[in-house]
C-alpha cells in the first residue's frame, strides 16, 4: 500500500486549500477512474493526535489525476462553466468542497450514479452531511457540511484507490435528539409514527444543532431501519429564536403539505420541545407568516395544513 499526503506545517492553523495533481495528462473516458462510494467514520483521539472525522472517496481504477479540497463561504451548485449558482440544501456551519476532474460518477447510458445517494447524513461529531453539487463532463464536486471549520489533511491510498480527508473533530459536544418519521409505523396507521435518534451537537447552540441534524436527514442505516425525513418542500430553516419559552423558526426554500396530515411540523416540534427552555413552537413559512403568531401554544403556517 502506498500513501501520498498533504497536510499543514503550521501547527494548529487550519488548512484552507489542498490540491493533489498527478503529472500525467487527464485520463481518457475509457481509463478514467470511477467513483464507487463515499463513506465516513470517526477516529477517537490518541496520545499523539486529536479526534478526527474521516471522509473517504472510493474509486475503481487509478486515482483521479486532479483532486482538491477547499473551504467555501456558501454551499452552491456549479454550472457547466464553473460559475456558481443556487444554494445547495445542506446542513452545516462551514462547508468543505471536494472536487475531482477526469472522473466517472454516473453511467452514460442510464444517468444513474455510480456511488449511491447524492446526499447522505453522517452521525459524526463534525461531519453532518455530504451532498453532490456538480457532475458534468467528468468533473465531480461534493460539499461536506460540518459543525465547525477545523484543520484537515488530504491524502491518497492505493489498492484500492481512495482519497481520504481527515477533519479534526476535537469538539465539545452534548447529546440531542432529532425526530424522524417511522415509515412502517406511519404506513400501519399507528400513532407512534415518529422516532428519535441521538446526535452530538455543539453547545451553546444545541437547538440549532438539533435542527441541523434533522434537516441533514437519517443516516443510511437509519433509513434501512425505516426512518425518513419529511421535508414538506422545505430546503432548510432560518431565524431560529427562543424567547420566553417560545421557539420560532422560519422554513426556507418552500412549504407544501401535499395534502398530508404528516408534515415536517411533526418532526420540528418534538425536536425543539426536547429542550427545557421550549414550551411552544411556532413555525413560519418562507414568507414569514404563521397562523397563530402571538397566541399561546404551537403554530403552523397555512402551507402545512392538510
Classification by helices and strands: mainly beta
The general outline is: globular
Q: State the separation between the terminal residues, measured CA to CA.
A: 57 Å
**How much is the average pLDDT?**
90
Count the domains: 2
User: What is the string of SSEs from the N terminus onward?
Assistant: EEEEEEEEEEEEEEHEHHEEEHE
Low-confidence region ranges: 1-14, 22-29
Describe this structure as you would to a colleague.
By secondary structure, the protein is mainly β. The chain has four helices and 19 strands. It has helices at 183-187, 206-216, 220-224, 265-273; strands at 3-6, 17-21, 34-43, 52-60, 66-72, 76-78, 84-87, 94-101, 119-121, 127-136, 139-146, 152-157, 161-168, 174-182, 194-201, 227-228, 236-243, 246-252, 280-284. Strand 17 (236-243) and strand 18 (246-252) form a beta hairpin. It is globular. Mean pLDDT is 90; it is low at 1-14 and 22-29.
Supply database-style keywords:
Immunoglobulin-like, 2 domains, 4 helices, single chain, 5-stranded antiparallel β-sheet, 6-stranded antiparallel β-sheet, 10% helix, 306 residues, mainly beta, disordered N terminus
Write the layout of secondary structure elements.
Blueprint: E1 3-6, E2 17-21, E3 34-43, E4 52-60, E5 66-72, E6 76-78, E7 84-87, E8 94-101, E9 119-121, E10 127-136, E11 139-146, E12 152-157, E13 161-168, E14 174-182, H1 183-187, E15 194-201, H2 206-216, H3 220-224, E16 227-228, E17 236-243, E18 246-252, H4 265-273, E19 280-284
Parallel strand pairs: 18-19
Antiparallel strand pairs: 1-12, 2-5, 3-4, 4-13, 5-8, 6-7, 8-11, 9-10, 10-11, 12-13, 14-15, 14-16, 17-18
